[in-house]
Amino acid sequence: MSEAQRVGEARANLVVMKFGGTSVEDAKAMLRTTAIVKGRRARGLSPVVVVSAMAKVTDQLIAAGKAAGRGDKSGALAIAARLRNRHIETAGDLLCGELFAELQTMIKSEFDALDDLLRGIAAVGELTPRTADNVVSFGERISSRMVAAAFAQHEMNGVHVDARTCIITDSHYGKAVPQEAAIEAKLTELVLPLVNAGHTPVMGGFIGANEDGITTTLGRGGSDFTAALVGGGLHAGAIEIWTDVDGIMTTDPRICPDALRVKTISFEEAAELAYFGAKVLHPATILPAVQKSIPVWVLNSRNAENEGTKITAMAPPCASPFKSIAAKKRLTIIDVVASRMLMTHGYLKAVFDVFDRYHCAIDMVSTSEVSISVTVDSNERLPEICAELGKMADVKLEGHKALICMVGEDIRGRSGMSGRVFSAIKHINVRMISQGASEINMSFMIEESDVEDAVRSLHAEFFADPDPVIFDTEARVVATKA
Ligand code: ADP
Ligand code: ASP
Ligand code: MG
């Protein structure tokens, strides 16, 4: 066998397994995670593991950073103290003997460093984006060391890798852009030899460093993105996103408890869903996987036997028009009414340039002869954006809006779809509609308070008789029997 063939085969066995916050939320969850990874090793696979911070830790670190930034030193340190206790207690439930003692020392020294950092921020009374990234990075820094220690205790050759040595990014703190060539080089140098030596590398998701070694983060939910970067950089055979639901579902099961598991979905459909609010997957996750045609699976760490959802380049034909319904809340509609500049050449460009200058992503656009309506979800820079737009037009804002996005292959090719959609929600006021920009989504804006009602009505209309090739209809049979 040639060297190239041997490497190729080794990589096909390489699987990147990402475990979200709920999959490492306490010692019990970490042990479930350990058993799942051990199962993959027993099948002859070589896992590289990416973990999130323990559930809710990132939110609390953000709160601690903000408190310190306001000068509230004792508030910030109180949050850090609660986090310290939670991590040490978890370590005590997870490990014993020498491994526990080592882990406890590590946790204490990380939290000592966090306390120092928070004291420094409180003294200055300002939280810069760079320091905020440093504060939130502690969640993944610590959780990844804990999981690596659990793997070591369970004879899986667990070895911790500091993600900041491999995930090289630019310096856009809070939402840093990964540098894929540098990442691939670092993974090949630092992680691949560990895999080849039979170790199970464990690294924190979400965090990285710029080329000067300063800590950065990839944005909320960014551990999925790390998994895709590691999978892409190592040319893995598969990427597995382990979470707390059975896979990608026909809608958020928290809104609609009778949501069904989607067995297979295309990269394009999954990306659309993720972008338009399905939290189960970070939108950026898909790209590195698509570029290298690496299949991505979404699986449930609380129900590991379940097949989950497979995301692949091509989705098989589906008798149902839609695969899933996503909802994105906290959106604002901006109406730009420009009677003064009626049909002036270059007007649209001037408006979009303003959003571009403030790095503000637009979700939906609708235009008429004298007005443009756009929807945005980033509210931080809205006052400045509106002030600039106000120089060329009348500007009106409407908050508390939500976008519903229905995703499915070839919606355009099926007649009568919009009729069915809008008659299912005829009791709800629809503010803006978009269909056509993409063949695979139909979206519209409604009031935030109507989201639950709209999603349930649409789900009842389109998933009453689901195609068993694509959806797990067995789950519904079990639920009906129970
Ligand atoms: P993790 O911590 O594992 O990254 P997240 O909370 O980020 O998990 O994502 C999982 C959650 O996404 C689920 O608990 C579910 O409520 C939500 N969700 C939203 N839309 C969907 C969907 N279409 N399919 C599955 N889960 C969804
Ligand atoms: N811990 C980070 C967050 O909560 C990243 C992640 O879990 O994906 O956003
Ligand atoms: Mg997530």
Indicate the overall shape: globular
- How is the largest sheet built, in terms of strand order? 3-4-2-1-7-9-10-8
Biggest β-sheet: count, sense, barrel? 8 strands, mixed
Question: What percentage of residues falls in helices of 4 or more residues?
Answer: 40-55%
Instruction: Please mark out the parts with pLDDT under 50 across 5 or more consecutive residues, or reply none.
Output: none
Beta-strand percent range: 15-25%
In DSSP terms (H or I, runs of 4 or more residues), the helix count works out at: 16
**First-to-last CA distance:** 54 Å
Structural class: alpha/beta
Mean model confidence by pLDDT: 91
Bound molecules: adenosine-5'-diphosphate, aspartic acid, magnesium ion
Radius of gyration, CA atoms, in whole angstroms = 24 Å
Compute the number of strand runs: 16
Textual characterization of the structure:
The protein is α/β, with parallel strands linked by helices and 482 residues long. The protein is built from 16 helices and 16 strands. β1, α2 and β2 form a beta-alpha-beta unit. α3 (57-69) runs parallel beside α5. The longest helix has 28 residues, at 97-124. It is globular, with a radius of gyration of 24 Å. The model has no long low-confidence stretch (mean pLDDT 91). Aspartic acid binds next to α9. Adenosine-5'-diphosphate (ADP) is lined by residues 20-22, 52, 221, 243-245, 248-249, 251-254, 278-280, 324.
Question: How would you summarize the topology of this molecule?
Answer:
Elements: H1 3-12, E1 14-19, H2 27-42, E2 46-51, H3 57-69, H4 73-94, H5 97-124, H6 129-153, E3 158-160, H7 180-190, H8 192-196, E4 200-204, E5 207-209, E6 215-217, H9 223-233, E7 238-243, E8 264-266, H10 267-275, H11 286-291, E9 296-300, E10 309-312, E11 324-337, H12 347-357, E12 362-367, E13 371-376, H13 382-390, E14 394-407, H14 417-424, E15 432-435, E16 441-447, H15 451-462, H16 473-481
Parallel strand pairs: 1-2, 1-7, 2-4, 3-4, 7-9, 8-10
Antiparallel strand pairs: 5-6, 9-10, 11-13, 11-14, 12-13, 14-16, 15-16
Helix pairs in contact: 2-4, 3-4, 3-5, 3-6, 4-5, 5-6, 7-9
The structure holds adenosine-5'-diphosphate, aspartic acid and magnesium ion.
Residues 20-22, 52, 221, 243-245, 248-249, 251-254, 278-280, 324 line the site of adenosine-5'-diphosphate (ADP).
